[in-house]
């Protein structure tokens, strides 16, 4: 080792004996700041090279040591689109915990797993989408309407709760603020004023947002993540706001985000948002004008499109200067240096995280802890819960009882193992004490008979399946086999479609001849992740090419004795996990007589229903009763489930309803027909155990609703209206079914009278609030103390708004004295005269208690003095 290298090693604090080549150029010097290194590196790039770095799949530039980089990875509740990884509950469920400390540990675990898997990918020389260190999480949009399919990805309807949970997510993902290198880059999305409908998001122009709604509802979480959590990426949204596309909005990106809030990092576009400028919004004439508009407004990286390929044309025609391009590329390369991605692994501690952390027992425990904390008990008549483990017979019925994939939510990875709800209950009671029946479908009131008994090929009953380890049905097949049951195949969990078939880069054909014995209508139930096309007698009757499986029902009429050649062609696409399902036959109506007879020996029936991520989600081609394109048109529980529980109740059963959903369900009939209702959300890989732990009393539920549960869709304004008037607990005047912040326990609590250290303060002062919380029941438990603020006489402001919360564990018969410090900004509201959010003199009410419902809150008057 020469003297110059010795000096470099000592200066970097490296381990003894480690040899590192002396840096040749400033951008190669890890002792310089990331910004200086990026500026030097960008000065060495051609315009074409710069543009290649501004796309989500960024080009490698070997001459400068720049490797291929994928800006688009996902970590919504686990490192997504790969497995095995630990899959935590869907964010809206985690929001029900009101536990930002545990949420930090969740995302610290997620970032550990992301780094571990990325380290392994690098060893294998692999670089592809979803496997990199920039993760587009968290979604901090406000869940303003339960019909929005992507609301499950958010932390609920309240700006303060969303802010606190969002900070925990970012801190867990990015690592310690004082670390030299970021663990991952987190991303606050979708900026701004974005929450459905999914069907119109590419052309929607939102014009009904008042300044108050903007600053008090839609922007606070983004501001908090920028100014408190130092989030490194912000994703701009698809739609227009006041006729300007969000990804080309100078007001949003240049003025508010960068100038007002001081954000100096990276803005990424939602996928395809820049091409929307000229394809759907018609605000730009072509790709060159769209790319110039986006970059000048402040968008640095384009996901999919790619309009940015035309940036050189925009520069040539004077629409934008190369110096403007430099600004964006310096920002994005700064963040790559911040990750340590441009440096030797020996310098970056995160590169040492081993694969043993992935799906580790410690991470599984965190997933179980969070799943338990997400469980929200909404009803418990006559204390029917918890159930006794000594019950002679308990029936478990319903379409979600064995639905493993439902527990994973959306934007998910695949766990090593998943405990479904039926298995969780069986583990408590033993298999012999549980009666199980699927009972009904999630949505449809019919059952499809299996027609494969009337299908044959090559003289054999069933379907012939042929597989190739390429996407073009080329060459010799890997394997050919006969299927005698409906097709239900997935690569999730590293399952092959058949022996020897790749998990990626494969194709398949499924062929048979159907000779029905009866004439009449039948249906084909057909869904796939990837490309799939269904042919009958050589004619295409349905096809799909999607990155998520979506139910598709195709009606068809057959004649008895006639032969129909049926073929399905399938290709795995991109990096997505592959799946294919096909069943066909006559539909017959659902009846409950057989079910009632089957459960006759059970006093208690646990009905596990709700909906699923295959029905609510992002821009999905779903068109079923109550569901439209990933959103919902109706918020009630599907009728087939309501009718099933009504039949069980009529038969004299005690009905415990476990509702699985990523959004609020209107279930007025269920409050009559069910003795208990447990809201279980999409609870992740440990969801089945968490549900069973609550049902049988091994865990005392403490979840509280992060969203309002409405009585019916009539209580909601039009879905496309973005005004907050009448929406959420903050502006709703009608009585909800279950209010925001509501949740029951197996014990009871009493909130005593609060005492403040002062009730008259200056507008810069904080208040110390002491609140006694007493457990008046027979079990130890946790209560959620909630602090709301209202400003009397503020006609346009919220009725109340959450400003603090605290999970309070209290032993049976004991009292805990909770001390909360409320900073001056607790009393911030929008000031119409000044057009900003500020603390203004006047009278305020602190409302403290156990939910947002007025009957659960006590008032305390606070006065803010005028400045002298």
Automatic annotation (TrEMBL):
- The protein depicted here goes by the name PA14 domain-containing protein
Q: Tell me which PROSITE patterns the record gives.
A: PA14
Give the top-rank taxon of the lineage listed in the UniProt record for this protein: Bacteria
Tell me which residues make up the PA14 domain.
458-600
- Does the keyword Signal feature in the UniProt annotation? yes
Q: Which NCBIfam families match?
A: xylosidase_Xyl3A
Q: Which GO terms describe its molecular function?
A: alpha-L-arabinofuranosidase activity; xylan 1,4-beta-xylosidase activity
Q: Which family does it belong to?
A: Belongs to the glycosyl hydrolase 3 family.
State the organism named in the record: Mucilaginibacter polytrichastri
Q: Pfam families attached here?
A: Fn3-like, Glyco_hydro_3, Glyco_hydro_3_C, PA14
Please name the GO terms of the biological process aspect recorded for this protein, alphabetically: arabinan catabolic process; xylan catabolic process
* UniProtKB keywords: Hydrolase, Signal
């Amino acid at each position: 080792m020469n003297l110059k290298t010795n000096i470099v090693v000592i200066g970097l604090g490296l381990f003894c004996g480690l040899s590192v080549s002396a840096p040749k150029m400033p951008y190669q010097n890890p002792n310089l700041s990331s910004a200086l290194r990026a500026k030097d590196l960008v000065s060495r790039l051609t315009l074409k090279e710069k543009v290649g770095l501004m796309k989500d799949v960024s080009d490698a530039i070997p001459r400068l040591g720049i490797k291929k980089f994928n800006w688009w990875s996902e970590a919504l509740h686990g490192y997504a689109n790969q497995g095995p990884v630990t899959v935590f509950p869907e964010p809206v469920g985690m929001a029900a915990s009101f536990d930002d400390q545990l949420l930090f540990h969740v995302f610290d675990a997620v970032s550990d797993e992301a780094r571990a898997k990325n380290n392994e990918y690098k060893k294998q020389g692999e670089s592809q989408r979803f496997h990199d260190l920039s993760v587009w999480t968290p979604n901090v949009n406000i869940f303003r309407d339960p019909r929005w399919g992507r609301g499950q990805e958010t932390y609920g309807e309240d700006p303060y709760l969303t802010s606190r949970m969002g900070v925990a997510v970012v801190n867990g993902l990015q690592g310690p603020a004082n670390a030299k290198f970021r663990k991952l880059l987190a991303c606050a999305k979708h900026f701004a004023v974005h929450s459905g409908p999914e069907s119109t998001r590419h052309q929607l122009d939102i014009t009904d947002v008042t300044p108050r709604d903007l600053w008090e509802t839609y922007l606070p979480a983004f501001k908090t993540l920028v100014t408190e959590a130092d989030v490194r990426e912000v994703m701009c949204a698809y739609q227009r706001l006041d006729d300007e596309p969000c990804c080309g909005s100078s007001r949003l990106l240049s003025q508010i985000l960068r100038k007002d809030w001081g954000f100096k990092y990276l803005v990424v576009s939602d996928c395809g948002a820049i091409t929307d400028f000229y394809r759907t919004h018609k605000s730009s004439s072509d790709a060159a004008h769209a790319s110039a508009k986006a970059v000048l407004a402040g968008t640095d990286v384009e996901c999919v499109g790619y309009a940015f390929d035309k940036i050189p044309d925009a520069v040539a025609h004077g629409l934008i200067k190369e110096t403007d391009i430099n600004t964006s590329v310096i920002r994005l390369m700064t963040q790559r240096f911040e990750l340590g991605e441009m440096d030797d692994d020996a310098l970056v501690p995160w590169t040492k995280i081993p694969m043993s952390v992935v799906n580790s027992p410690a991470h599984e425990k965190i997933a179980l802890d969070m799943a338990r904390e997400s469980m929200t008990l909404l009803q418990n008549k006559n204390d029917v819960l918890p159930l006794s483990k000594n019950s002679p017979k308990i029936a478990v019925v319903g379409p979600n009882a064995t639905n493993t994939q439902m527990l994973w939510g959306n934007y998910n990875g695949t766990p090593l193992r998943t405990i479904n709800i039926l298995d969780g209950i069986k583990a408590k009671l033993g298999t012999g004490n549980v009666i199980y029946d699927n009972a009904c479908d999630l949505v449809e009131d019919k059952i499809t008979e299996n027609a494969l008994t009337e299908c044959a090929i090559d003289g054999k009953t069933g379907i012939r399946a042929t597989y190739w380890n390429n996407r073009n049905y080329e060459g010799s097949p890997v394997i050919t086999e006969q299927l005698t049951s409906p097709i239900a195949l997935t690569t999730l969990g590293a399952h092959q479609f058949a022996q020897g078939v790749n998990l990626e880069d494969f194709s398949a054909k499924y062929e048979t001849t159907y000779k029905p014995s009866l004439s009449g209508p039948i249906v084909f139930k057909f869904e796939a992740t990837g490309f799939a096309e269904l042919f009958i007698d050589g004619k295409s009757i349905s096809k799909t090419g999607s990155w998520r499986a979506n139910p598709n029902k195709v009606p068809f009429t057959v004649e008895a004795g006639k032969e129909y050649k049926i073929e399905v062609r399938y290709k795995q696409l991109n990096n997505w996990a592959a799946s294919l399902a096909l069943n066909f036959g006559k539909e017959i109506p659902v009846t409950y007589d057989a079910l009632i007879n089957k459960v006759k020996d059970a006093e208690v029936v646990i009905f596990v229903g709700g909906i699923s991520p295959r029905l609510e989600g992002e821009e999905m081609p779903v068109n079923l009763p109550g569901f439209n394109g990933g959103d919902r048109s109706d918020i009630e529980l599907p009728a087939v489930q309501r009718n099933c529980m009504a039949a069980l109740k009529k038969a004299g059963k005690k009905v415990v309803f476990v509702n699985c959903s990523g959004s609020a369900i209107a279930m007025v009939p269920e409050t009559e027909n069910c003795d208990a209702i447990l809201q279980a959300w999409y609870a992740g890989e440990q969801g089945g155990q968490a549900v069973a732990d609550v049902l049988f009393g091994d865990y005392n539920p403490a979840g509280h609703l992060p969203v309002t549960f409405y009585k019916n869709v009539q209580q909601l304004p039009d879905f496309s209206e973005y005004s907050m008037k009448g929406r959420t607990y903050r502006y709703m005047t009608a009585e909800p079914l279950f209010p925001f912040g509501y949740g029951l326990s197996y014990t009871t609590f009493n909130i005593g009278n609060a005492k403040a250290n002062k009730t008259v303060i200056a507008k810069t002062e904080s208040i110390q609030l002491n609140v006694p919380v007493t457990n008046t029941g027979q079990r130890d438990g946790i209560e959620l103390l909630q602090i709301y603020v209202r400003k009397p006489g503020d006609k346009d402001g919220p009725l109340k708004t959450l400003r603090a919360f605290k999970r309070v564990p209290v032993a049976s018969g004991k009292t805990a004295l909770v001390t909360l410090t409320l900073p001056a900004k607790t009393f911030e509201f929008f000031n119409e005269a000044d057009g900003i959010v500020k603390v203004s003199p006047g009278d305020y009410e602190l409302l403290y208690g156990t939910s947002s419902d007025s009957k659960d809150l006590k008032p305390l008057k606070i006065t803010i003095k005028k400045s002298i």
